[in-house]
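Batch job 17 of 40 flagged for manual review because the log was empty.
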Amino acid sequence: MQNIKHDKYTIPISSPLYFKPPWYSLDTEVQMVHYETKREIIETLLPEPLEYHSNEVIAWVSSAPFSTHGPLNEAAIFLTCKFEGVQGVYEPFVYCDQEVALVSGREVIGWAKKPGEINLKMYGETVRGELRRGCTQLMSLACTVDVQGDPDELPFGPEFIVKLIPSAEEDSPAEVAQLVKMESAMTPKPGKFFKGKGSVCFERDNIDPLYTLEPVKIIAGYYGVFDMVLPNGKIVYTY
């Protein structure tokens, strides 16, 4: 008989879909628009015990030609926040177009990943990223690549993720409810990170309400090529 607790990491137990972290994503194109939105909207989206930090938001679209899960595209919104005095980010919305990355990210770390159609291309002098789900173009980003940029200008920090695994029983609380702290490594390729003007647009959709985070001020747009390493997270709070 198979020893589920000690011999197995994930399901299907006879043919696992993915391996344990760390997971790697190399030569990944990343587009970001750094902007400000309304404080009251950020506060409604931050789960306890995360606290409000600033009005700053990062809209993200990325395209990875290679990862340890296979080629994939992702899109997300990062809110700035605080936990026990540490500034970090939280993703209320994140989308992926590749099943292994989507399933592993949800099951192991707890990312709130949903499937979406994601594209990132350069048209003339402008990089354009798009997120579509169903009939709705949920988010579209545009940025120019005017000058060399500095990733430290962006308000990143450790990422905080709410990991929820529902119970199989009726009317039972979540089987797992944890706040996970993730500290990933995101290294820009030399000479391949640029800054310019940025734009972000949302289409109204009450199922995926990214539009509530519409910008009130655009700070800058960014585009670069990165190598990324995603380790295991650390449980910092249990609900």
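Reviewer: the log was empty due to a logging misconfiguration, but the result itself is present. The chain has three helices and 16 strands. Unflagging and moving on to job 18.
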